[in-house]
Design a protein that fits this description.
The protein is α/β, with parallel strands linked by helices and 270 residues long. It has two domains: 6-122, NAD(P)-binding Rossmann-like Domain (Rossmann fold, 3-Layer(aba) Sandwich); 131-246, Dihydrodipicolinate Reductase, domain 2, CATH 3.30.360.10. It is built from nine helices and twelve strands. The protein has helices spanning 15-27, 79-88, 104-117, 131-138, 153-156, 161-164, 181-187, 193-201, 251-265, and strands at 6-11, 32-38, 54-56, 69-72, 92-95, 142-151, 174-180, 209-214, 221-229, 232-240, 242-243, 246-250. The strands form three sheets. The chain has a five-stranded parallel β-sheet, with helices on both faces. Strands 7-8-6-9-10 form a five-stranded mixed β-sheet. A two-stranded antiparallel sheet has the order 11-12. Helix 1 (15-27) crosses helix 9 (251-265) and helix 2 runs parallel beside helix 3 (104-117). The longest helix has 15 residues, at 251-265. The protein is globular. The structure holds 1,4-dihydronicotinamide adenine dinucleotide and oxaloacetate ion (OAA). Residues 11-17, 38-40, 73-76, 78, 96-98, 126-127, 189-190, 193-194, 246, 249, 253 line the site of 1,4-dihydronicotinamide adenine dinucleotide. The active site is at 223. It is an enzyme of class 1 (oxidoreductase). It catalyses: L-aspartate + NADP(+) + H2O = oxaloacetate + NH4(+) + NADPH + H(+); L-aspartate + NAD(+) + H2O = oxaloacetate + NH4(+) + NADH + H(+). GO terms for molecular function: aspartate dehydrogenase [NAD(P)+] activity.
Length: 270
Amino acid sequence: MSGSDLRVVLVGWGAIGQRVAALLAERRPPRVVLAGVAVRDAGVVRPGWPAGAARVAGPDGLAALAPGLVVECAGRAAVMDWGRAALAAGADFAPASTSAFTDGALLADLAARATAAGRQVLIAPGALGGIDALAAAARLGLAEVRHEIVKPPAAWAGTAAEKLCDLAALTAPLTFFDGTAAEAARDFPQNANVAMITALAGIGPARTRIALVADPGAAGNAHRLRATGDFGTMTIALENRPLATNPKSSELTALALVRLIENRAAAVVL
Ligand SMILES: NC(=O)C1=CN([C@@H]2O[C@H](COP(=O)(O)OP(=O)(O)OC[C@H]3O[C@@H](n4cnc5c(N)ncnc54)[C@H](O)[C@@H]3O)[C@@H](O)[C@H]2O)C=CC1
Ligand SMILES: O=C([O-])CC(=O)C(=O)O
């Protein structure tokens, strides 16, 4: 491998981390090396571990791998420490657990560290599409952004949805939450990270409206985004296939991270 290779470290070996690693192994993008994966128990042997990737036990072990890009797919609690460690190690930082940015001070802190280090915090579109159009449209001014997240009841199990409705008894779609992106991302960190992505790309966490729906007829995880503004009107509808090992997370989230990684090393960026 040459000195110009992009050395990537994944933080988290769950549904998304494993899918990203498998896609990189399949696609073998030029100039991309999966240098390491951070896990909580580095001693455990894990089937399917990527060839040549080091096990990283904690943020202190990051700099030794000389990463160019650290991709977080572990959970909200991992974002601050791994983001700081990535930027201190001279890497860009791409967090998937964007619900962490309901704490606006955390994003400001990482942004300041990125500026000081000459690096970037890169936010992939996650489970969503149309973020490029939304972010472009926001430059002229948006009047309204509404994002509806529809998942089967099983995908809401173990979340605050259980306090708001009887998931097992549903026979028709139920909108169990309608509020701001700030509230959605704060209260549903496993299911509404994209709410914060929509908000950051558009009109912010306080003005972006989010509806969360449990639908017993849903085959996958749907995202419906509608925005109006001086640019015109946009409507995006996605029916995402869930990841096999975590029904809460969409396949598209892993694909968006693979795209981000490949683009950091590509000659032509799309
Ligand atoms: N941006 C987006 O659109 C989306 C973001 N997500 C978020 O991405 C994250 C990962 O999702 P999944 O892979 O589906 O979750 P998962 O629960 O399958 O995997 C997370 C893994 O990270 C590990 N982990 C947790 N804290 C860690 C730490 N400090 N260091 C090392 N490993 C740690 C866990 O043990 C687990 O193996 C979650 O926060 C999820 O909510 C999920 C879907 C969409
Ligand atoms: O993967 C999805 O469809 C969305 C999701 O879980 C999240 O934003 O946290």
